[in-house]
Design brief:
By secondary structure, the chain is an all-alpha fold. It has two domains: about 70 residues, no CATH class; about 80 residues. The protein has eleven helices and no strands. The longest helix is centred in the C-terminal third of the chain and has 16 residues. The protein is globular and about 50 Å long.
């Protein structure tokens, strides 16, 4: 099925966008330049399957990694798997897509996000802040202690934060 997905990606390739992404220094062996709306359409053509998603995540291809996030069933995206993927996250785009399309749907989202923010690694922290913001907007309730923790920890991350993390922290603080 991975080969079928790669065929779909080749058919949808945007050479100009692919070249621009390579020039910008995206850390992938291969970039097809397929935009997110088209990736969502491709994802709808394939089953949500944990094994397939893990195979796609292991590829050093931008689009297969984003499709992995879209195809991973939320009920099988355990805390252990989330941590493993966080440790191998390569770009802010992956963090953003995971924060919107997968992590908020899991039963361990809040716990995972709190741990990632506590650890302070940039890309997992971007994902965690955006996911928590998403949960808050959807009505999740945070205790005073959790709010205090998030405010203190995100404030301590700001001085060394890159642009993506700064924006994610601000989005979370705005939602708190």
């Amino acid at each position: 099925m991975v080969n079928e997905i790669k065929q779909e990606l080749r058919a949808s390739m945007n050479g100009i966008l692919s070249a621009r992404m390579r020039e910008a220094g995206m850390p992938f062996k291969l970039i097809f330049g397929v935009e997110l709306p088209r990736l969502r359409t491709i994802a709808e053509e394939f089953p949500r399957d944990a094994e397939l998603a893990c195979q796609l995540w292991q590829q050093n291809i931008r689009e297969t990694r984003l499709l992995a996030i879209m195809l991973m069933p939320s009920e099988t995206f355990t805390q252990e798997r989330a941590n493993a993927w966080a440790d191998t996250m390569l770009t802010a785009e992956e963090a953003q897509v995971m924060a919107m399309m997968l992590l908020p749907k899991t039963s361990c989202a809040k716990e995972v996000c709190m741990a990632w923010i506590a650890a302070g690694k940039p890309l997992p922290s971007v994902c965690a802040c955006l996911c928590l913001r998403h949960l808050l907007v959807r009505g999740a309730v945070f205790s005073e202690e959790e709010q205090h923790f998030l405010d203190n920890k995100t404030t301590s991350l700001l001085p060394q934060a890159n642009l993506h993390l700064r924006k994610a922290i601000q989005a979370l603080k705005d939602a708190l």
